[in-house]
Each structure stands twice: as C-alpha cells, then as structure tokens.
C-alpha cells in the first residue's frame, strides 16, 4: 500500500474534496478544511497520518463511520463520507466553525457552574445518541468537544467517535491503551474493553475540570497518571471549588467511581441524574479554596434572679411566654413548617406518577414533551426540582416523554419552491435548494427532497429541496438500422416526440427497420421536439412479364433486367420458351428466382 505524508493542502480527494487548508494536526490524524465540489459546501476532512496508519483497522474504521453517518443529532458532528486516499484512510465530516472546549478552558480556566452544567448536558445528550446506536467514544476530552459559533445555542458538538478504536483495536478485545491519560477510565488502563460506562468516567472528569479548572490527576508521565486512575479515587470537586453544590459534587464522584458497575450505566442515565439536582452555587463561596479563618464564638450569659417574684407576676410571665410561643409557632408554620423538600418523581411513569405523588401528599400537573434520551411514558423533568423547597400539598409539574421529536418529511413533489418551504416549516427544517434537470417535472417545480418524503427526521434537520431545471439539453439519438418499435422507444426515453413514420422500399435494409431519420443523429434538440422516421418495407415488388414464346436468351435478358434471378432448362435446341415458373402478371420481390423451360 503506497502512502503519502506531509501537508496535503491543495490535493483533491476522490475527485471531489479539495483540501483548502490544514486546520489541526495531531499524532494520529490531520484535519483539513475542504470544499466539496460536487455539493458546493465546506466540509472537514480528517486524514489519518502515516504514523497513525500503522496497525490501522480499516474495517472497524469503515463500520464506525457508517454507524455515525446514520446518527442525526445536533450535538454530534455529522459524518458524510469515508475512504482511502493514497494509502491514508480519511473521513469527511461536518465543518464546525468555532473553537474547542480546550480553547475555552485555556482562556478562562474554569466556567460558571450553571454554564458548565448547560454545556455538559449537551455533551451527554450527544453522547447518549451514540450509546443508543451501539457506539463507544473511548476518548472523551475537551479537545474532542467543539463549540459551534463561539458558544451560542446548540453549541456543543462531539467529534471523533471510534477513531481510537479503529487505530488500535476493537472494543471486544484488550488492545493497546489509546486514550488521554488525564481522562482514561481505570478499566481501560487494566486492558479491559471499553463500554458506555468508560465514556461516563471520562465525561465525569471533563465536568470536574469545567467546575474546578484542573483535572484530578496530572503530571509529566502519562503512564503514572494513568495508574493513578486505577489506584486512587477521584477527589470531590468541592476540595478545589467549594462553591460546587454538594449534590453536584456527589454526582461527579459517583460517575468517576473506579468500579464501572457503580457508575451511571450510560450517558443518558448520567444526564437524567444531572437534570434532577440543584446546581445553584453554595452561598457564601467564590469558587476559590478559602483561606483558614479564626473561629468566633458568641455566648449569651443569663444571671440568677435575686428578688422573689409574686405568683401573680409569675402567672403573667407564663401567659406572656405562651403568647410568644404561639406567635412563634404560627410564624414558624407560615415561614417554614408548612414547607418540605420536593420528592423525586423522575423514576415514575405516566401510569404511576399521580398515585405516587398522592402518597407523598402532592398533586401533579402532567405535561407532555419530547426527549431524545428518556423512553416514552417516563418522566423527563419535574418542577420544583428534587429537593427544592415546596409547600405540603402543592402541585408538582412533571413532563412525560413522548419519545424523540420526529417529523415525517412531506411529499412536496410538483410544488413550487415557496410552497415546499412552507410545508417544511412545520418542523423548522433547515432548507437548502439543489437544482437538477428532470424529464418528469417542468422547470421550477420541486422534484423531491433529501431526505426523501416519508422519512422521519428531527426538528431542525437539514432538508434539501430538489428543484427542476426542466428537461435536460438533448441531442437526437441515432436510430437508423433499429426496428421501428425500438427506435420509437429510444426517442421517447430522451424526451422527444415521434412524428411521421413513412414506409419506403429498400433493397438493403430489412423490412421494419429504420432507413432514415429527420433530424439526423446527434442534432441538437429540445424536449418534445419531433423526429420523423422512414421505415423499410423491404425490396420493391416487380410484376413478372409474360416471356412464353420468346427466345430463351431474350427472355433471360428481360427478366434479369427487371432484377429477377433466372434459371433455365432447355429440352430441344430451338431455344423458344414454352413455360415459366412465376405466372405472368404476378408481383414478386426483386431478386426472386424464375425458372424458364425452352425447346
């Protein structure tokens, strides 16, 4: 296998992807911004380097690329194509303008808690889509998390699913460890196969870094760092950032447990637990490790009375105290006593949530909503959140999953472009327009869509409207020599109309075949133009003359002059024709055989 190396800027891959500039370079692969000259769009091409191609599993790489290409999720970088260029495997991906999460951390070190959780939730949402498709990433880290458009809206895009797996072995066997030491799961260090729980561990360490500004284990020796994941527990992020809420810190520790079985089983389970906790910062903290402060104790001293009080005074004091206690109790009830913590309804379903809430002393308001990760009929979220302060007997609003939000692409064939756009606006499709020639639809009519009508897609899915440019430019095909039916079919398949079909005798063209066509072959034509044909009737029939009584030589000359083939039989020597095989006055094709008998 011949391989190439170095900067491939300017190269054209597969006759389609022109590499414009090198935008990233790594140990296993280089990434180029490229132009897809077939679809006229900007893409990213990741090219495995000469160093990375050693031991490369092309079959695994192809399988992973095809699986990812079937994913359609706003938080996963789309894969369009894959192949091998000059011995180097490559994958063509969605081009994401923006930056990486690593770049953001380099600038800011740590993020606000609410911002970190919002970004991380999108990461888990995209990762869950891959887990549902049977994919394990194996190398979750800030460098593999892209932030689209500088960090607004659906900004998180997870990239490089399965790349490490393709380069260094499959998930079912213990191969060489390929992962970033600061984020690697302990079981991978021990040579065990990667699972969704391995991605959960690496993701938890990314969240740890977002909250604290550093990774839990670091050092100059990657091997030593990797062993620490096996030998040490990940410390609580509160040790580095005291403003991290206790519930969030506990979730990070649970997801970063050394034993895979004690972590959330996959990204979806991790996300549901994240959504169920309160992420408000701990009051009175700034996010930096506080300096030790001197403890201050305030003591109230009550002296012993020296004068004897009367019973009347004592009763008065008791009544006053009782009144104060009643007021205090009422105030406690109004301000605190009638409130409790909101129970978790997240493990319930549409069928059980009302009864469960009633047992806990609450009403529920059930609403429907779509979810990419929560199964149909189960609780997606609740308000107030788990553990929030709530009045006893109050109403908890729960959202029940309708499953993933999917819409069926409508059939817009035959519509105008504006009509098609209006039909696709029902699910906020990101519409693009492509144009092509069509023999079925007139110019400016919609031919179809990509994805095709009837396919189920998410809201906001890119949909290409294919608009007709009318019939394609035509040239008249050569139908001379074809039989009549075949010639007519060939012309009609090109969008042409068969005009006059005239018969003509021919000594060389078999009956039923085309002798001439007008316009001639390869002449330019437009859709629906008329082509006239001349079809052979075979040789022209000739009337047989009466040659009985003629001299044999004269009769032979006459018949041969008309195109007949003459055979003779002479009985006597006088040479006068007394009979002929074809009757005088009958018609026969030129070249027919006639016998003459003479005496």
Automatic annotation (TrEMBL):
Keyword vocabulary terms for this entry: ATP-binding, Kinase, Membrane, Nucleotide-binding, Serine/threonine-protein kinase, Transferase, Transmembrane, Transmembrane helix
Domain of life (superkingdom): Bacteria
Reactions catalysed according to its record: L-threonyl-[protein] + ATP = O-phospho-L-threonyl-[protein] + ADP + H(+); L-seryl-[protein] + ATP = O-phospho-L-seryl-[protein] + ADP + H(+)
Cross-referenced PROSITE patterns: PASTA, PROTEIN_KINASE_DOM, PROTEIN_KINASE_ST
Matching Gene3D superfamilies: 3.30.10.20, Phosphorylase Kinase, domain 1, Transferase(Phosphotransferase) domain 1
Organism, as annotated: Glycomyces harbinensis
Secretion signal span: none
Protein name per the record: non-specific serine/threonine protein kinase
A GO term, aspect molecular function: protein serine/threonine kinase activity
């Amino acid at each position: 296998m011949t391989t190439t190396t170095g900067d491939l800027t300017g190269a054209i891959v597969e006759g389609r992807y022109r590499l414009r500039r090198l935008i990233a370079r790594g140990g296993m692969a280089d990434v180029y911004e490229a132009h897809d000259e077939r679809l006229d769009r900007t893409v990213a091409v990741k090219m495995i380097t000469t160093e990375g191609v050693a031991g490369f599993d092309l079959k695994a790489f192809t399988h992973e690329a095809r699986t990812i290409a079937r994913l359609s999720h706003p938080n996963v970088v789309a894969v369009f194509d894959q192949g091998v260029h000059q011995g180097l495997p490559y994958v063509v991906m969605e081009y994401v303008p923006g930056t990486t999460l690593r770049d953001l951390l380099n600038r800011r070190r740590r993020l606000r808690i609410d911002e970190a959780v919002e970004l991380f939730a999108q990461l888990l949402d995209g990762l869950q889509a891959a887990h549902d498709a049977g994919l394990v990433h194996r190398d979750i880290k800030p460098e593999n998390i892209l932030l689209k458009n500088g960090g607004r809206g659906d900004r998180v895009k997870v990239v490089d699913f399965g790349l490490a797996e393709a380069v260094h072995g499959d998930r079912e066997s213990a191969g060489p460890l390929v992962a970033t030491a600061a984020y690697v799961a302990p079981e991978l260090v021990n040579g065990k196969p990667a699972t969704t729980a391995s991605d959960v561990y690496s993701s938890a360490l990314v969240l740890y870094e977002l909250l604290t500004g550093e990774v839990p284990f670091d050092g100059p020796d990657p091997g030593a760092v990797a062993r620490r994941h096996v030998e040490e527990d990940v410390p609580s992020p509160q040790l580095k950032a005291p403003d991290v809420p206790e519930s969030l810190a506990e979730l990070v520790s649970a997801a970063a447990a050394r034993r895979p079985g004690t972590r959330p089983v996959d990204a979806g389970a991790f996300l549901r637990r994240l959504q169920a906790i309160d992420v408000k910062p701990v009051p009175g903290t700034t996010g930096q490790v506080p300096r030790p402060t001197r403890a201050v104790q305030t003591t109230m001293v009550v002296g012993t009375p020296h004068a004897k009080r009367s019973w009347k005074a004592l009763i008065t004091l008791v009544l006053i105290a009782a009144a104060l206690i009643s007021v205090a109790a009422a105030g406690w009830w109004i301000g605190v006593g009638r409130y409790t913590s909101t129970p978790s309804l997240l493990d319930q379903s549409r069928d059980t949530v009302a009864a469960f809430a009633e047992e806990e002393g609450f009403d529920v308001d059930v609403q429907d909503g779509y979810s990419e990760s929560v199964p149909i009929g189960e609780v997606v979220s609740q308000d107030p959140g788990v553990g929030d302060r709530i009045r006893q007997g109050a109403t908890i609003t729960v959202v029940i999953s309708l499953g993933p939000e999917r819409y069926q692409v409508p059939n817009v064939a035959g519509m105008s472009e504006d009509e098609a756009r209006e039909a696709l606006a029902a699910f906020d499709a990101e519409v693009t327009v492509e144009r092509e020639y069509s023999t079925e639809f007139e110019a400016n009519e919609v031919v179809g869509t990509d994805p095709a009508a009837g396919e189920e897609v998410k809201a906001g899915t890119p949909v290409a409207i294919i608009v007709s440019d009318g019939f394609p430019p035509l040239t008249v095909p050569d139908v001379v020599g074809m039989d009549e039916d075949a010639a007519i079919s060939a012309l009609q398949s090109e969008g042409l109309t068969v005009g006059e079909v005239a018969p003509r005798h021919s000594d060389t063209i078999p009956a039923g075949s085309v002798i001439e066509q007008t316009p001639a072959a390869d002449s330019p034509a437009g859709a629906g133009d008329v082509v006239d044909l001349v079809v052979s009737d075979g040789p022209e029939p000739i009337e047989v003359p009466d040659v009985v009584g003629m001299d044999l030589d004269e009769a032979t000359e006459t018949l041969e002059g008309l195109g007949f083939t003459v055979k003779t039989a002479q009985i006597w020597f006088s040479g006068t024709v007394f009979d002929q095989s074809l009757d005088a006055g009958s018609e026969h094709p030129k070249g027919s055989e006639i016998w003459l008998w003479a005496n």
